[in-house]
Amino acid sequence: MHHHDDSTVPKVSVLTHKRRKGIYILPNLFTLAALFGGFYSIVMAMNGRFDQAAIGVFCAMVLDSLDGRVARMTNTQSAFGEQMDSLSDMVSFGAAPALIAYVWALTSLGRWGWIAAFVYCACAALRLARFNVNTAVVDKRFFQGLPSPAAAALVAGFIWLMSEAGTKGQDVRWYMFALTLFAGLTMVTNVPFYSFKDVSFKRSVPFAVIVSIALGIAVITIDPPTVMFGVFMVYGFSGYFLYAWRKAKGQQTSLISISTDEPDERGLH
């Protein structure tokens, strides 16, 4: 009995106290891997390998969505990890897509090209910073503004699709210009985007969901660039449809706001 007593309280507190001090390796490895994806894509764009550059951004997306999950699963969330995640997001979803788009197509537009790329980059920074400070939960199910990974997927997906088709960036430079501005500015609007947060994998999943996931994977593998770009294009416009629908129903929705009472979005910037 005494032995049992001894092993309950004190040891646990000592353990948690000890673990707090270190930097948690596992989630931060995922964050570093995501950062590498973004860095790799910039290097590839400089080398003119645009398909690889776009794939780098998509890999960063996958890894970035994992680091928060791994931290929650292993219960190793930390303030350090959050900062690290946010900084890596800035490179992978802010700088990388802007630079790839610029090198691939926007250079030929002269100053308009780099202005568009910079607007995208600045909007990504604004969006990441905005969600680092907000804590008031309005509605967990919706993001306000396009999440930066989705914006990056739009830009990178278009480049991937075009370079797979053998189209030169110069031929579609104005489309790239429009898309870069659209993705950038949608990040800083208050347009609602469905967050899929209420889709929980903890509960037992109905069989239909598993089948549909399998089908989804099958569809993606048919032609990854086309499918991915299509999916994110639909997602990119879904916010505006939702916004228009809410407006039509007479709900109070503001397109642009700089207030800090945005919904809480830790883990998915």
What is the terminal-to-terminal distance? 49 Å
Cross-sheet strand order for the largest sheet: 1-2
Question: What does the average pLDDT come to?
Answer: 81
Shape assignment:
globular
CA radius of gyration is 21 Å
The biggest sheet amounts to:
2 strands, antiparallel
CATH fold-type name: Four Helix Bundle (Hemerythrin (Met), subunit A)
The total number of structural domains is 1
List the uncertain runs: 5-14, 258-269
Q: What percent strand?
A: under 5%
- Helix and strand element order: HHHHHEHHEHH
CATH superfamily: CDP-alcohol phosphotransferase transmembrane (TM) domain
The residue fraction in helices comes out at over 70%
Number of helices: 9
Structural class determined from secondary elements: mainly alpha
CATH class: Mainly Alpha
Strand tally: 2
Architecture per CATH nomenclature, i.e. the level-2 architecture: Up-down Bundle
Quick tags:
269 residues; mainly alpha; Four Helix Bundle (Hemerythrin (Met), subunit A)
